[in-house]
Amino acid sequence: MTRVRVTAPSASARTAVRGVPRPLESREAAQDSEVGQVFVRSLIRSQLRLALVVAGGFLLILAAFPLTLMVVPGLADTRVAGIPFGWLLLGAGIYPVIGLSAWLYVRTAARNEARYRDLAGEP
Amino acid sequence: MNREHCGPERHGGARVNAGIAIAAVTVVSLATAVIGFYGLRISRTTGDFYVASRTVRPWWNASAIGGEYLSAASFLGVAGLILLSGTDALWFPVGYTAGYLMLLLFVAAPLRRSGAYTIPDFTESRLGSRTVRRVTSLVVVMVGWLYIVPQLHGAALTIHIATGLPSWVGSVAVVVVVCLTVVAGGMRSITFVQAFQYWLKLTALAVPILFIVFVLAGHGAEPQSLPAVNPTGVAPAGPYQNVSLLVALLFGTLGLPHVLVRFYTNPDGHSARRTTLIVLGLLSVFYLFPTAYGLVARMYAPDLARSGQPDAMVLRLPGELVGGMPGDLLSALVVAGAFAAFLSTTSGLVVSLAGVISQDVLGGSVRGFRLAAVVSAVVPLGFAFMTGSMALAGSVGLVFAFTASTVCPVLLLGIWWRGLTDAGAIAGMVTGGLLCGGAMIAGAVAGSGQTPAWLAQPAAWSVPAAFAVMVIVSRATSHRIPGTMPRIMTRLHTPERPLATER
After folding, report:
1. Is B104 in Cβ contact with A102 (below 8 Å)?
2. Distance from CA of A19 to the nearest CA of B (A)
3. What per-residue confidence (pLDDT) applies to B352?
4. Are B96 and B74 in contact (CB under 8 A)?
5. Of the candidates B281, B308, B305, B12, the residue with the CA atom closest to the CA atom of residue B157
6. Is B3 on the interface with A (CB under 8 A)?
7. B380-434 per-position pLDDT tens digit
8. Pair B150, B71: CB distance under 8 Å
9. Are the beta carbons of B110 and B272 closer than 8 angstroms?
10. 3 state DSSP class of B82
């Protein structure tokens, strides 16, 4: 069990070691090839698209909450177990939406990475 | 000790027992120091000092992130603001939590995979420029100092209300305890301290409010006021202010230096995401309680809003509604939790600032780290003495706006856009910093209540402006895109090899 290298390499140090093949660099070299870069670009694109879709969906729901309260008269003051519904919705109801969005994202992002691994032929 | 000596009585607010409160603060400080010194025995190398050797388990790490993130603003400020302005203020806890969602979506895994310690490390390696590094360091140090000042104001307020001692005692006590623990243990021990403090803060808010609700229900107490009624004449915030606040909180979180440095303690990108997921759960649970305090205070103790110190509401509510010995003990618990909040956020910020300052100025040794830690804690103490305290949630909200206008664009574009250049990054950070900083100074000069809404909440225009300048200048200087860019983008986004082979 060896330790992960923990120092952040400075830019000058990195240029100095370039050309000396370390185990990690052979893998990076494979990724530098034209085909490798195509896979990498497609991974980045799909991760960005995923993040934007989740963020956009969440913001829509977030905006829908106060709009619902505004559009339906009396809804905000309806009592549920003694607590006004407006308080329940904004004070507690948004958190499950955040958690669900996060969980969906983590699952899908890991799946995108697994697909990249398969394509790039990494172990 | 004189048990009847209490906080400022002219406010007519509930009293907090001074002796028990001092005991509570002492216990929290001692526990922090003991856990810190325990950590000293297992932190030896420079790596331990900075990022806990990246071997912290997700649950520990998530608790530590929660502990570090929940500051004076979350513990005292949010509930006070909800008491003052009702459902409008609920956007604060929602924004603080949703900011973590943005962090998860756009930053968590790539930043961990970048392999850098600090934000300046990241910008330097991504853009291949020492100048970008220096500008980023400057911005990060400013953000950190701006953020520590409200913590010290919160500590001053708490000590004054709880014990009747002069306000400066609170700020100085926080700085001394933080310096001792950071200098002794570095990041590794801080991780244990922070994790402990998350659970302490949660307990310190949850137990008193549950007890209060239980007592109120048992007595069949009648509410004095409706939740929808504002106890003071504070005008409700307009839609512009709510939107601008959300922009600041959503985008500000992903640039906070003390939050970001935590991601380097995850073993890989995937566990960085898992950690963030747990953090979101911990924050969601935590923020239910300030909301409950605000609601209960609006219904049963609206007088607390008229004391002129709504931030002290959480400290006074148990005494006001329970009273007697149980009230004293519950107040002491709240005081302990509040003190934990100041300590944990301040020490997290001091660790990250010390990392930046020592790497850039003092050569990155352990000795340099210790010296830098003392500097990063003492300078904001001076600021805190010079400035008057304003509403905690509001002043922390402005720090988020500043972060969202400076660090956030360079991180987001650096991670996701191949076209970013060093010139663009510098131009954007300077623009965002000047616009947002200018608005903050103008607002401070004009005084609260006199500031127009667009100046009081600058994020809605300063953040887009920073992004726009960064993109336009990068496009104009596209010949400066570093040759290492494709390799670094690959590293940021591709999964690490399975742990078994890497370690």
Report:
1. yes
2. 14
3. 82
4. yes
5. B308
6. no
7. 888 888 776 666 667 788 889 999 999 999 999 999 998 899 899 999 999 999 9
8. yes
9. no
10. helix
* B53–A contact, CB cutoff 8 A: yes
- Residue to test with chain A: of B490, B491, B497, B503, most A Cβ within 10 A: B490
pLDDT score for B467: 93
Please state, in angstroms and as integers, the Cα–Cα distance from residue B222 to each residue in A82, B3, B300, following that order. 12, 31, 8
Greatest distance between any 2 Cα atoms in chain B:
74
CA distances from B267 to A18, A42, B69, B79, B104 (A): 25, 25, 21, 36, 16
Name which of B194, B116, B132 is nearest B364 in CA terms. Answer: B116
Residue A22, burial from CB neighbour count under 10 angstroms (0-12, 13-18, 19+): exposed
Percent pLDDT > 90 in chain B is 14
Give Cα separations from B141 to B68, B148, B432 (angstroms). Answer: 17, 11, 15
CA pair distance B157, B341, nearest whole angstrom:
13
CA distance B187 to B43: 8
Burial annotation B112-130 (CB, 10 A radius, 16+ → b, else e): bbbbbbbbbbbbbbbbbbe
Burial of B257 (0-12, 13-18, 19+ CB in 10 A): buried
The fraction of chain B above a pLDDT of 70, given in percent, is 84
Most distant pair of Cα atoms in chain A: their distance: 71
Comparing CB atoms, the residue among A31, A43, A98 nearest residue B98 is A98
Lowest-pLDDT range of A40-44, B73-77, B263-267, B379-383: B263-267
Q: Which residues of B touch A91 (CB under 8 A)?
A: 87, 90, 93, 288, 291, 295
As a whole number of angstroms, the distance between CA B287 and CA B270 comes to 26
pLDDT tens, B273-315? Answer: 888 899 999 999 999 999 988 888 888 877 777 777 777 888 8
How many Å apart are CA B426 and CA A89, to the nearest integer?
41
Say if CB B346 and CB B152 are below 8 A apart.
Answer: yes
* The most confident of B212-226, B244-258, B318-332, by mean pLDDT: B244-258
Q: What is the pLDDT of residue B47?
A: 52
In Å, what is the CA distance from B476 to each residue of A70, B96, B340, B472, B481? 45, 35, 48, 6, 11
Place of tokens 């002796």: B19
- Rounded-to-integer distance, Cα B156 and Cα B167, Å: 4
Q: Rounded distance, CA A26 to CA B137, Å?
A: 33
Query: Predicted ipTM?
Result: 0.82
Distances (CA, A) of A111 to A100, A104, B176, B270, B495: 17, 11, 47, 11, 11
Among B residues 133-152, those touching chain A with beta carbons less than 8 Å apart: none
